[in-house]
Each structure stands twice: as structure tokens, then as C-alpha cells.
Design brief:
Layout: H1 10-25, H2 27-48, H3 61-92, H4 95-99, H5 105-131, H6 142-166, H7 170-186, H8 199-205, H9 209-222, H10 229-253
Helix pairs in contact: 1-5, 2-3, 2-5, 3-5, 3-6, 3-7, 3-9, 5-6, 5-10, 6-9, 6-10, 9-10
Family: Belongs to the ABC-2 integral membrane protein family.
Membrane topology: Multi-pass membrane protein
Transmembrane segments: 31-49, 61-79, 145-167, 179-201, 227-251
């Protein structure tokens, strides 16, 4: 009798467990591959350029670039988890089995989201641990850094859900990664500070939503950034709220989930 209050959430826990087990079952692809990629970046920018150049006073290049690489891993993997999982369920038709279960739209979206956040933050954590071999980070505001990384994983979990529902085939799904996500990441200040750009390009970079996530996370870690942390966090939170509302609206309507 004591378990009855938790029964309505049983579908949520079951779906969350399924999603976590799904990416852990192929951890060599979903976790190890992005970690190896991040390690190569760290070797190139840490071992070869780390102490030779500096783009931020008081920090070497490795210290500057590591926060961006950590957040890049969080973003890419949170997006990939929801996008690939939901799209494959649609593509294979197994989404129909899920829709006839007593899973509510809120349970549906939060189960997919939380699993994606776990994967993204796990990759980010391991990337940081590997970065310790190349350069130490001061972690000036650790709680703010965790909050920004969590917000980034949540935001791109929603984006992954939206992409999976709009994609009609594998090519259109990969378009979101190759022509939207990666350009925004690379032009968002992962490898250079926006402040060193000419005024026109610096102003244009402020239209890049990834700039606020990356700069906010770097600001929390290093204590310096191109914009105030609260501004970066507020803009990122508004974007996350907007994408969550969009994803919830589509899932609530069953948009392209029933064939």
C-alpha cells in the first residue's frame, strides 16, 4: 500500500531506465567516442599550444579552451541522445508501443530529457578529468559552472527532441548537427574570445545563442568572460524555457509520433 503513490510515476522511471540503458549498452559509441575526440582536442591545444600562446590575460591557451571543450561535449551528447533515440523510435515504428502505454506527455519529455542530461554531463565530467593532465582550472564559481552545464544539457536535450520530430530521414537529422549545431559551437567562442574580433563580427557573435552558454560557463570556471555571468545565464535560461515549451507543445499534440 505504501507504493501506491509512486505508481503513476512508474512509466516515467521505466522509460528513463530504458533510455539510460540504451546509451550505456553502446557506451563505446555514445560515451567513449566523444571522450576520445575531446582528448585529441586537449592534446592538440593543451600539449602543443597550451603554454605557447595566451588569448586571455592570466591564463594559458589550454586553460582558456578547456571549459569550451567540456561544454561542447555536454551539448553534443545531450542533443545526440534525444535526437537519435526519438528519431530511431519513429523510424522503426517502436514509438507506437510507447504511445499506448500510460506515459503522460510530461513523463515522456522529462524521461528523454533526464537521460540526455545524464549522458551529456557524464561526458563533460570525464572530459574535465582528462583535462587535469594538461592544465589546472581555478573553478572560481563551481556551483555556477555546474548550473550552466546543467542548463546547457537541458536546453540541447529539448533541441534534440524537436529535431527528431521534424526530421523525416537520417539526412535531415544530420543536417541539424552539421549545419546548425557544429557551426554555432565553433563560432560561439570555444577556441577564441569574442572580444578579440573586429567590432562587426563581435556584435554578430552576440546573436549566436551558443555564445552565452560557452561564455557563461567559462566565466564561472575562470572568473572572467566577455559578458556578465548573470546575463549569460538569463539568456540561456530563456532559450531553454522557449525550447522546452516548443518540445512540450509538439509532444502534447503527438506531432509526427503516430505515423
Amino acid at each position: 500500500m505504501n507504493e501506491r503513490p509512486f505508481l503513476p510515476w512508474l512509466p516515467f522511471y521505466t522509460l528513463l531506465q530504458k533510455e539510460v540503458r540504451r546509451f550505456l549498452r553502446v557506451a563505446s559509441q555514445t560515451v567513449m567516442t566523444p571522450i576520445i575526440t575531446a582528448s585529441l582536442y586537449l592534446f592538440v591545444f593543451g600539449a602543443t599550444l597550451g603554454d605557447r600562446i595566451s588569448v586571455l590575460p592570466g591564463f594559458n591557451y589550454a586553460q582558456f579552451v578547456i571549459p569550451g571543450l567540456i561544454l561542447m561535449g555536454v551539448i553534443n551528447n545531450a542533443f545526440s541522445n534525444t535526437a537519435s533515440s526519438l528519431f530511431m523510435s519513429r523510424y522503426l515504428g517502436s514509438i507506437v508501443d510507447l504511445l499506448v502505454t500510460p506515459v503522460t506527455p510530461s513523463q515522456f519529455i522529462f524521461a528523454y530529457t533526464l537521460a540526455a542530461m545524464i549522458r551529456g554531463l557524464l561526458v563533460g565530467l570525464v572530459t574535465w578529468l582528462i583535462s587535469l593532465f594538461f592544465a589546472p582550472l581555478p573553478w572560481v564559481h563551481p556551483l555556477a559552472a555546474v548550473a550552466m552545464a546543467t542548463l546547457a544539457s537541458f536546453l540541447f536535450a529539448q533541441f534534440g527532441l524537436i529535431a527528431a520530430m521534424y526530421a523525416s530521414n537520417f539526412d535531415s537529422l544530420s543536417m541539424y548537427t552539421n549545419f546548425i549545431l557544429l557551426p554555432l559551437i565553433y563560432l560561439g567562442g570555444v577556441f577564441y574570445p569574442i572580444s578579440i574580433l573586429p567590432p562587426f563580427w563581435a556584435g554578430l557573435s552576440h546573436l549566436n545563442p551558443l555564445f552565452y552558454l560557452i561564455d557563461g560557463f567559462r566565466h564561472a570556471v575562470l572568473g572572467v568572460g566577455d559578458i556578465p555571468f548573470l546575463l549569460a545565464f538569463a539568456v540561456s535560461a530563456l532559450m531553454a524555457l522557449g525550447l522546452f515549451g516548443w518540445a512540450a507543445f509538439l509532444i502534447g499534440r503527438g506531432y509526427r509520433l503516430r505515423g
